[in-house]
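Students often ask what a holo structure prediction actually looks like on paper. The answer is less mysterious than it sounds. You provide the chain, you provide the ligand, and the output is a string of discrete structure tokens encoding the 3D arrangement of the protein together with adenosine-5'-triphosphate.
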Amino acid sequence: MTAVLEISGLRKTYRGRKGVRKALDGFDMVVEAGQVHGFLGPNGSGKTTTLRTLLGLIKPNDGRMTILGQEVPRHLPQVAGLVGAIVESPQFFGNFSAETTLSLLADAGGVNPHRVPAVLELVGLRDRAKDRVKTYSLGMKQRLAVASALLKEPKLLILDEPANGLDPGGIREMRTLMADLAASGMTVLLSSHILGEIQLICDSVTIISAGRRVAAGSVSEVLASHTSATVKVRLEPGVDLPGAVAILRAAGAVIPSLEKDHFTVGNATNPAQITKLLAEKQIYVSELTPVSADLEDVFLKLTGTAPVDGANRQVDQVAAETQGGWGQ
Ligand SMILES: Nc1ncnc2c1ncn2[C@@H]1O[C@H](COP(=O)(O)OP(=O)(O)OP(=O)(O)O)[C@@H](O)[C@H]1O
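The corresponding structure tokens follow.
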């Protein structure tokens, strides 16, 4: 596969009241052709700074970026026509209809006017195309923004939070739209906080935390390599569950949850050890199942942004989570 987008060692610092802030601290990203690539990170981790830098809106301090093989920002004029982007919520004139807005944009950008009805159809605004934009819902304005980015039939589409403000039906339609665009050969880079959506829509993902890449790869690879060794344990009916938990805890097991009829072991890198330890005390396991992580678990773990009981986590505050194995 060829990379449509490559970023390596990107650095951007801002000077502020409290001195220098590293918004990007040697960030790397690769997006392969024809993929829908998710760009994930907590608030303030550097996503918008990355996208703005890529589009030549911010000057980086260091690093290398290429779009479609061309080094940017130096060759941005050569590739600008092949990139559609919505990085900041675009402002549309409320008294114009979507059709007029897109026709004006097509005209200004030298785009064939036939693209206007085509993109209106694609984003699902056909039936409201003649209504004034000020009568649109947030989600409809979002669709219009996507339509404007699609006008010039870009090879790379960059969308910052495209599902913002969309209802579940709208999110599902956006998902179908992304899949259709990717199937037509377009590469889509999508930043989002809706992790379930990223998991459903994206082929691959980059996770950023504090200006650095903390994970990258296909969604399944990222999930597999960061799935914690958690197993769910069910015992024969009538067995003293807290007693069994105490035996395992004494041997070093971490038990994140104890329910009425089962418990979980969070550091079960060797699950056989659980059955062995309990069987030695004549306690028999009736079910032992791995608990698979979803993207939200991986995200919270890698970015250190899981909620902490009784604390209000502050922006920029990350908690490093370390979890050792047990029973090796
Ligand atoms: N113009 C600026 N001046 C100073 N600091 C800035 C500026 N723009 C961004 N930053 C800082 O850089 C860091 C990264 O910000 P950025 O907007 O890229 O994050 P983000 O991942 O897009 O966050 P969010 O998900 O909240 O939109 C933050 O700490 C932010 O405060």
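The chain has two domains: 3-225, 228-290.
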